[in-house]
User: What shape does this take?
Amino acid sequence: MIVAASASASPRRPHAPGIRLVAQQSGTEALLQDVSAVDSSIVWVGGHSATWAVTMDGGAHWRSAVMPRADSLEFRDVQAVDARTAYLLSSGLGERSRIYKTTDGGASWALEFTATNPKAFFDCFAFWDDTHGMAVSDAVDGHFLVITTRDGVHWTPVPPMKLPNAQPNEGAFAASGTCAMALPPSDGWIGTGSAPTARLLRTGDRGATWDAVATPLAADTTEGITSLAVRDARHLVALGGNIARLTAVQDEVVITDDGGRSWTPGGRLPFPGPVFGAAYSPSTDPWLVAVGPGGAAASNDDGRTWTLIDSASYWSVGFGSARVGWAVGPRGRITRIELPAR
Assistant: This one.
């Protein structure tokens, strides 16, 4: 059933001067866990209970729905192409990991991929353009599972010999759809954890081959890289934290300006708990926003210093323009973020 909701734009005073937060009426009470914005008007989100939502007018009105015959699925990632086309990835063991696609604005959805390995658990995906993308699962029996598409319809496994060997228990975090990032035309990254070392998997050929570099982020069974934010091929920020310590203040940001060969510590975030999602605004002088169950914070120096912008809980954040972004979270929470010019 589709539910239409009209957003009585409800500005909320953020903690940081110059940043405006506008609460939206999403039309759902589901936990929303992923967001993808085409621009400042068209935004798609996904969440638990097979829920998705879309706005075509910058959040003035949202349309939400539940995927038919799939209401127990958890959509952990979404990729928006335009007003009519979007992909959704559900996470779960085995056949609960799926990829759906709509080309008619959500009126119907085609099931493109279902995991056949019962140990697979797909965490997130990322796209270089409308039809070229990749998706990653936690490692199975010492090998990563990565699939790619060249036509936006068919998904093919990357041969294991083209991927680094996995550490024991290594995988990605399906927190927000930001554990994998793609930068056109061909660069891509995956952040890992749940292992002795938090690593960055890298490709320069649209997922055909991969290598791995270690990062200094703390890693263990419940921590590692939970989110990646990419400014360009050299400047990346890896964010993490222990997902089992929601009230602890943690050091969870590391920065690279050479594509991951070396790393420096970032600033401590002003909210407690782990980071679940992070994103740059697309600009020559971009803001970086990080979110988690403990709040949301913004940085205008690549994560070296942070300012608290909200203390509400969020799971993911994304930007479709230089100054307008969206954060999503529990009980259908959607907040429009309006950034000041620098």
